[in-house]
Amino acid sequence: MFADTVCVGNVRDLILFTAVQLIYLDLSSCLMKLDLVMQKYSLFSLAKNALSGHRNWQQAWRSPPLRDQYDVIVIGAGGHGLATAYYLAKEFGTANVAVLERGWLGGGNIARNTITIRSNYMRDESIPFYVKSVAMYEGLTKELNFNMMHSKRTMVDVVQTYPKMRELRRRQLTMDIYGSTYEQISTDEVRRRIPALTGGGPDARLPIIGGMVHTDAGVNRHDAVAWGYARGADELGVEIHQQTAVQSLIRGSDGAITGVETNRGTVRAKKVVVAVSGHTTTITETAGLKLPLRTMNLTAFVSEPVKPLVDVIVNCPDSGFYFSQSDKGEMVIGGAPDMGQSFRRDIKQNVFEDTVTSMLSLFPAFKKLKLMRQWGGHLDIAHDASPIMSKTEVGGLFVTAGWWGGYKAIPAGGLALAHLVAKGTPHPLMSSFTLDRFKHLDFIMEAGTTTAR
Amino acid sequence: MLRITCPYCGSRNESEFLFGGPVGTERPDPNTTSDADWIEYLTVKPNPLGPVQERWWHARGCGEWLTIWRDTRTHDIVEAPNDTE
Ligand SMILES: Cc1cc2nc3c(=O)[nH]c(=O)nc-3n(C[C@H](O)[C@H](O)[C@H](O)COP(=O)(O)OP(=O)(O)OC[C@H]3O[C@@H](n4cnc5c(N)ncnc54)[C@H](O)[C@@H]3O)c2cc1C
Ligand SMILES: [Zn+2]
Question: Which of A265, A320, A443, B46 lies in the 20 to 30 Å Cα band around A231?
């Protein structure tokens, strides 16, 4: 294990090292066994595993048998469920945790999102929370020993109406207080930063009037976030059970939660966390709990890969679309949500066409792009468009929900919720986001929740 | 794209309509209802995996407001469920 910290600095070292490995294959397999304690990902482990044709990598997480009792059950192995489990074990010493996932880990909305990480929000309650989450993301590769491929590439808002410009300028003033970066730039500067932006000229229906730059914004790799937290949590003793669907919540005679009913039988715990994004009300209603959430469909699509063309995240709130270019070269494009409630996971043709039409008005050259894949996810959104991380009126039942644009919130959301579950009191970062706000009609109306529009 | 039937104009494209939100529960009398019930009325809307009742406005047509039932799993416009009026 000590050798993991050795950096293979040059080719000669590598060759020497390879020779040594070939001679002592026994030693190598011995090292493999040692690795089972904790497999670190490093240049060393990569080189070592290359020697055995990458056949000896240890599984990133276990699949242990399902027990019938835990201290905490987390429903949903998406970003929020996995991060909550990880921080419960890491920060609060609660490792007797089971994460129950209906499908496969990381296969929900986290797999469907457009990975925009930013903190340009409107409200005093929101901004510090997202500033913290963005900062945590920047350190996540180290924290989890998993390459997040984090790319802090800034977001540029292309503004086409004065009301939108005023709203974003107002956001900037609040963001200044909390150390998030937002700055107005001229139309010329917008075009300099985004050469492909050739539409929106003086003759357009909505000419570009300027822009805003958010240098904290970035993108990373969604699979790495799910897998990194899963591996980190597993290492600390958390059990992840895939193909385990929760069918209903079980309440005891005093009304408090006692466990869950699953397709694999009853599992008991005094604390249950609902982290099912989109399906929150479906689950909580089995315990008679109603929540101010509606489930809606949000969609995205990608183009064929092309050469590097756009190196920032482009957001066009007045036209209603945003995109960034992936490392593979695909344009990853998102539009406005479908209006009514929906549990579908595809895109409606008219939503798709509207988004493409808006995009072509500003990026006419994109009409040559072939679009490869399209999809949707269903997300719940709260009455005031802010998240809910809260205890509920059912004792022992916690929810993390209302995650419209909640990918960026995974690290801070997980940490804050773990705090609430372990200690029973809200983390200072999220004390405004509990269900209590609805009792007092103390809504946090958040204009920053949706990127586009 | 939904095809929504307007009582005046017949079956029309969804793009002619604006979404008016889900139909909630009936407005309680604010003078006699409890705070909790009033807040539930204001903030909690039905969110079923299945038929939901909602309003649409034929804004780019005749201007009529109408109410439909739509299945949230399929987007099909459906008959009102049996247990409702
Ligand atoms: C098209 C699109 C684009 C988006 N773009 C962005 C973006 O750019 N930036 C951003 O910040 N956010 C974005 N989001 C939002 C983001 O994806 C979600 O807010 C976030 O992923 C939700 O949290 P999660 O990862 O925990 O959810 P999920 O990954 O959905 O996890 C929930 C899990 O619960 C499981 N589950 C459900 N029911 C049960 C059950 N009964 N029993 C057991 N398990 C169950 C599901 O299978 C799922 O794996 C986007 C979303 C979509 C759909
Ligand atoms: Zn009409």
Answer: A265
Query: Count of domains in chain B?
Result: 1
Q: Tens of pLDDT along A121-153?
A: 999 999 999 999 999 999 999 999 999 999 999
Compute the distance between CA of residue A316 and CA of residue A322 in angstroms, rounded to an integer: 6
In a domain, B84, yes or no: no
- The DSSP bridge partners found for residue A75 are A100, A274
Question: Which of A421, A426, A434 is closest to A84 using CA atoms?
Answer: A421
Per-residue pLDDT, averaged over A397-403, amounts to: 98
CB contact under 8 A, B42 and A441: yes
CATH number at residue A275: 3.50.50.60
What is residue A279's predicted lDDT score, i.e. its pLDDT? 97
Is A45 inside a domain boundary?
A: no
Q: Which of the residues B12, B42, B43 would you substitute to probe the A interface, choosing the one with the greatest number of A C-beta atoms within 10 Å?
A: B43
Query: Do A79 and A110 lie in a common domain?
Result: yes
pLDDT exceeds cutoff 60 at B85: no
ipTM of the complex: 0.94
Question: CA of B8, closest CA in chain A: separation in Å?
Answer: 23
The answer to whether residue B85 is domain-embedded is: no
Task: Count structural domains, chain A.
Answer: 2
What whole-number distance in Å separates Cα of residue A289 and Cα of residue A404?
21
State the pLDDT confidence band at A103, using cuts at 50, 70 and 90. Answer: very high
pTM given for the model: 0.92
Tens of pLDDT, residues A190-249: 999 999 999 999 999 999 999 999 999 999 999 999 999 999 999 999 999 999 999 999
Give the orientation angle of helix A222-235 with respect to helix A410-423, to 10 degrees: 30
Residue B56: which CATH number? Answer: 3.30.2270.10
How many helices and strands (H and E) does chain A possess?
Answer: 13, 17
**Arithmetic mean of pLDDT over chain A:** 92
C-alpha B83/C-alpha B38 separation (Å) is 24
List, for residues B11-70, the tens digit of each pLDDT value.
Answer: 999 999 999 999 988 999 999 999 999 999 999 999 999 999 999 999 999 999 999 999
Contacts of A295 in chain B (CB under 8 A): 47, 72
A-B contacts (CB, under 8 Å): 53
Name the residue among B15, B22, B74 with its Cβ closest to that of A341: B22
Quote the domain boundaries for residue B48: 3-78
Which residue segment(s) compose the domain that A423 sits in?
A: 72-145+222-293+384-449
Q: In this structure, what token pair is assigned to residue A240?
A: 């992840």
Closest CB to A341: pick one of B14, B43, B52: B52
Q: Do B44 and A292 touch (CB under 8 A)?
A: yes
Cα(A355)–Cα(A114) distance, integer angstroms: 15
Report the separation in Å between the CA atom of A405 and the middle of ligand 1, taken as the mean of its atom positions: 9
Q: Collect all residues of chain B within an 8 Å Cβ-Cβ radius of residue A439.
A: 35-36, 39
